[in-house]
Amino acid sequence: MKKSNFITLDSLSLQEFDENSELIPLMTPEDEEAINNEELPETLPILSLRNTVLFPGVVIPITAGRDKSIKLINDANKGGKVIGVVSQKDESVEDPSAKDINETGTVARILRVLKMPDGNVTVIIQGKKRFKVAEVLTEDPYMNATIRDMAEAKPAVNNKEFSAIIDSIKDLALEIIKESPNIPSEASFAIKNIESNSFLINFVSSNMNISVAEKQSLLEMNDLKKRALATLKFMNVEFQKLELKNDIQSKVQMDMSQQQREYFLHQQMKTIQEELGGVSHDEEIEEMKLRASEKQWSKEVAKHFDKEISKMQRMNPQVAEYSIQRNYLELFLDLPWNEFSTDKFDLKYAKKVLDRDHFGLEDVKRRIIEYLAVLKLRNDMKSPILCLYGPPGVGKTSLGKSIAEALGREYVRISLGGLRDEAEIRGHRKTYIGAMPGRIIQSLKKAGTSNPVFVLDEIDKLSNSHQGDPSSAMLEVLDPEQNNEFYDNFLEMGYDLSKVMFIATSNSLSTIQPALRDRMEIINVTGYTIEEKVEIAKRHLLPKQLKEHGLTESHIKIGKAQLEKIVEGYTRESGVRGLEKQIAKMVRYAAKNIAMEEDYNIKISNEDVIEVLGGPKLERDKYENNNVAGVVTGLAWTRVGGDILFIESILSKGKGTLSITGNLGKVMKESATIAMEYIKSNADSFGIDSAIFDTYNVHIHVPEGATPKDGPSAGVTMLTSLVSLFTQKKVKKSLAMTGEITLRGKVLPVGGIKEKILAAKRARIKEILLCEENKRDIDEIKADYLKGLTFHYVTDMSDVIKIAVTDQKVKHAKKL
Ligand SMILES: Nc1ncnc2c1ncn2[C@@H]1O[C@H](COP(=O)(O)OP(=O)(O)OP(=O)(O)O)[C@@H](O)[C@H]1O
């Protein structure tokens, strides 16, 4: 035996062993040869092993606790030191008999016996040769049995396959040792030094991490090549398990170190932030909690806030969700919750404020004061929402502002024009990227109180689209029964809007969703007459512009005559927005002169107006003379106020066709046909020869073809135009008219009377023809507006002709 080759065993205290005995030898091929040639004894004492298998050549320590085993070891140690070692089939059997042990075992030589302090005996044995138990002779005091030799089929020395398997076993064994933290690296020296193939297989099999049964199966294999292959398979499995284990371990380790790294960096950042005087996240949260404690929110909101803030506390401040959560909670803190301003409800003061800010509009102001009076008496806000309706620039929005001031409330305004997405009103859920609360909640945050005056501008221009229906969200906002729990998607909570005073403005009633219109009290703000506009300009617009341009009244004076010129020549509107712009131009002109020290005190003359604004841009809507047959003045209503229009018709030789031009809608064309047919059937009463209907073509035209026109209110005008045409008689001077006609010859009332009257006045019309039923509209109009106008009320189309068409022939009357 070569003493230089030795194996270290971790289960054994080698130091102790070294001190007392020789080193454990490795089995060389020569040793193996010698052992194989040794004659086996016929009988052997059999030591049963519970949890291991002894392979030939391998040295293992065994601790014996059972009396039988201790006696066997002691006897053998005193004698020939050779024993038979067989593993138990079932390790739990305490006192195994013949049937409990495997048939195949290994002859072993006792190398050393160590007596342990606890009475156990540790024996170090080395396997020599396999055997089969032939017959168990005695079981007491320990098992003795006759044994048989076992032949081993060894492959030829030059068997390449076998050599390859052996090489693989060696390589894999080295890999396994490398990967296993528990096997000392010296083991790899041992592997490298093993010269005997069968010992290599046995050594590896013995040290592999496989079950006793598996080890036993290896021991029982007679064919060495097969045994080598089976060993290699087990090794592969073990290697894969090891790799997997290491993989998991390194991952776990990496996760841990990543976490540690992040923690470390966060700590560093926190320190840096604190050094720089910034707010650390903890401080931020503390500050939020402090602010929250001052809020007057309901239990429900407080609970929700607490839940959300503890969510924020658990978050990593570096992730994007953290800032979303912070914004969310800041919205809660910024929003007013049950924070009210005290209402003034001094109606005299309210009237004063309204009068101060707005000239005229007596009716409107009266209704607003009445509305406020009701609010004062009822002392709650569950009254209809005001809707100020009228053409642009008549002061609807600024009335809202004055109401806020009169009541001593905050003022906020949103424009609903062109708003198509419901989320604009209700907000996006906060999980969306860039999500925000809706405009209602945003405005309340801006207002800072829970009861502001909230102006909803252009409510008629809310539009529907595939992104939802904003008007249904608006319905919830404006419904006093529902709006105490208005749900905003971003806020994820109901918000009480019931104390908010909503005022809507609108240019048209027909485009407001009917359900919305029902919820509102409509107040009509009509346009202004020229005189009123001049007054508004003098009292409000000019002082406002002077202030904005840093001037005072001593710098520039614009007389009434010039203001009137500006109104008539440069603006065409019911409101005063355009007028304000023109005045701003005049003020800028003065400011320039003053700044250049050319003139300190400017009194604007007519020439100045032309110099600054250019020649008058607009001819006043003038009534035209009545020298031509078939030309009649009608009154029209548009979204931007009233207007006058002319209906012209001519005759040409032909076959009696009727053509209509001027960009007219279907209803207006129908009016023309009705008028024509009515005249045909009543030709005699108008003194018209029916023959001309077949010999002349009629063409009706409504000028300004670029502007689309529609509606039934031009019916009476068309009728008058055609009668005048067929009779070649003059239409009454300075007369304008509006009214729908029917085939039976009736005249029906129409809308927009106030605007139409204002337009007629602007055009210097003197007489107006209307349906009898429209009289009640006229009665509602301020007497001032009606000054200088004569009204003719009719019910029948024949009355229209009687009033409108004179007996005089026109200048160049056609002979028909
Ligand atoms: N009666 C008035 N007295 C004083 N100023 C007026 C009056 N009417 C309108 N104004 C002024 O005209 C300007 C335009 O008014 P505002 O913006 O309120 O019009 P609006 O009716 O709301 O128009 P829109 O329908 O286009 O929103 C404001 O500067 C307003 O102060």
From TrEMBL:
InterPro entries: AAA+_ATPase (IPR003593), ATPase_AAA_core (IPR003959), Lon_bac (IPR027543), Lon_bac/euk-typ (IPR004815), Lon_lid (IPR054594), Lon_proteolytic (IPR008269), Lon_Prtase (IPR027065), Lon_prtase_N (IPR003111)
Reactions listed under catalytic activity: Hydrolysis of proteins in presence of ATP
Main localization, broad class: cytoplasm
SUPFAM superfamilies, alphabetized: P-loop containing nucleoside triphosphate hydrolases, PUA domain-like, Ribosomal protein S5 domain 2-like
Localisation per UniProt entry: Cytoplasm
Quaternary structure and partners: Homohexamer. Organized in a ring with a central cavity.
Name under which the protein is recorded: Lon protease
